[in-house]
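Box S1 | Example of a co-folding query
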Amino acid sequence: MRTAPRYTCDDAARLAAEVYGIAARAEPLPSERDQNFRLWDAGAQFILKISNRQEERAILELQNEALRRLTAGGTGLEWARVVRDRRGREIAEAGGHFVRLLTWVEGECFANVRPHSPELLSSLGRGLGRIDTALADFDHPAAHRTHAWDLRHAETAWEHAGRLPEARRGLVEPLIEAWQRVDWSGFRTSIIHGDANDYNVLVNAGPRGHSSHVVGIVDLGDMLRTATVCELAIALAYAMLGERDPIAAGACVARAYHAEYPLTDSEIAALYTLSAARLAMSVCHAAWQTAEAPGNEYLNISNASAWAAIEALSKLPAGWADEVFRRACAGPMRDLADARRAHLGPSLSLSYREPLHIIRGWRQHLYDASGRAYLDCVNNVAHVGHCHPRVVAAEAGQAALLNTNTRYLHENLNEYLARLAATLPPPLSVIYLVCSGSEANELALRLARAHTGSDRVIVVDIAYHGNTSALVDISPYKFNGPGGRGKSAHVTVVPVADEYRSVRWRGTVAEAAAHTGAAAFFCESALGCGGQVILPRGYLREAYEAVRAAGGVSIADEVQTGFGRAGTNFWMFETQGVVPDIVTMGKPIGNGHPIGAVATTAEIAASFANGMEYFNTFGGNPVSCAVGLAVLDAIRDEGLQENARATGEYLLGELRQLAERHRTIGDVRGQGLFLGIELVRDRGTKEPAAEEASELVNRMKELGVLLSTDGPFHNVIKIKPPLVFSRDDAGVLVSRLEEALAVPPFPHL
Ligand SMILES: Cc1ncc(COP(=O)(O)O)c(C=O)c1O
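Box S1 (continued) | Returned holo structure for pyridoxal-5'-phosphate
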């Protein structure tokens, strides 16, 4: 390692007086290589740069020449002016060192200004784009060099990878490997600034809330001729530091750069890899330099933030950042909402005031096209995690081999039926495979009718069981909702057994059964649309007994609640100590692949087997069965049911504590990872706070957490995340809720 000359402040002041004839106060500035001092003269400020002994004079000349170019280049940024010494030299010599005096560029370091607004990030990209435009036809013999920070020759940094702490080396290796795959042959080359790091970028930090922008980029010490794209990649590495959404921040910078100095497709494709590689270089160098010079504070700060960024990036799904950068440079896209409206049936709403454009899912996160990540707390379909590799591989593998209907023999079908049946208590041994929750409930309805000879149905108020005509008729959520035609004669509605609202539930199903006689009793094992209601202990036992006594059958709709979400049990009905006559499944069963299933008893199945075939073109096909098996494997092998229990219990406790601090929260309830937060305006009257709930959900989205509302009064926040949801995620959810509830209209206790 090269050693810098050691000057004191007094030395620097003396030097300034002797060489430049200015009487100034000196203060040291942090620097990796040279010694830099900030000088205060009577009215002006300067930076005195004492170059390392071995620093070539030609490189200083390159910097001076570049400064002249940039000053004339219409960058919109302020550039230092080189002050000549008493003898008229731009580069002085003193004590065996080269000395330069530059005028001071005023500004706050980008690193010290938070938050980084989109305007600020854009101004960084714009400034860099203009710098590279100004330097595009500039050349200088001294620029034809490499140095330790040359991203094109990062192999010198990788030599130090062995010095990285072993536990973290695994985070850096993929970044190095990705860098090694970069094809440099297609990139343009030019002289670049090469070090737009967060301490070299200066910002006109105004008062808080004032929109700041980049005013200057200092320190041309790393200038060299290399692939032009490195300029932006280096800046991106630092722009991503400390950001909640590093890719969104990077995309902002890249978009503005591209508008000034258009990147080529291959440069865009390499951007993310190169910026991540720059972070990897940073920690490799730090590992080396720390070994050489322990206690360098400047190093420690930048090293910690680089590691934090590397760690955050390591959690992002493959390919997403590249895609966001590609989209950022592709210019304004067609308005997706408009295009969607042009042809999509209008009976479908979008979530959130500002709809999301999600382009990637990974585990418990969704990722949008602008570079933002969202903790998905509401998607109970991506049960074992979005895009679970095992499920994806099973699906792709079988799709490449065969996908046909169930009129042929196939191992996948047999194995899946057996595995699914094994999750159910006897006598639920017969299974029908279908393609959705609606198809499952539709079939359950037919099974019940065939078995009881009655088309009467008892349903719970506010329930939703599916989108077919017959199911809309048994879904109060629909038939009593907007556009609904009201209750049909064959349907009896019982109240939501809501203990928080002290609804009387004992005997309600029995009364209905006594009134209807043999009927199908449809009931979710915990109520979703009803408002994330956990049924009172004994509710299903009493209801099932009454229904059976009247000659009817009980159907557990486990479309939302099944497959381990309950935590203590695989099926939510098991938490009630009952066995239904029919169980319907959907959503999580295929982790997003369209599968549904109905399980019943041999006796009911026999009643249905009246000669009319039940054929389902796609139900039970080999691909669906492969997917279903992979989902069951993932639940088992990753301990997801137990995770739902432990994480759910923890989250419930945290939410209850949150309720102690926010009187908007009237009730917190849950079983496993099926939870609800009911918002009220008044804890005494329990007046529902529907608008507030909607406001909270929208705010949470802005804070990067996805939730939704439901319940008879639309005031219940639903929490039903993928089962890979962790304790840390629970912590994030609760702290963001705290943040969102901190400002009106939400009162404090
Ligand atoms: C409880 C319940 N049952 C059935 C369905 C219908 O399932 P699908 O949309 O897969 O047809 C849903 C869907 O939201 C549901 O929540």
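Residues 436-438, 441, 464-467, 524, 528, 557, 559-560, 586 surround pyridoxal-5'-phosphate (CB under 6 Å). The chain has 23 helices and 27 strands.
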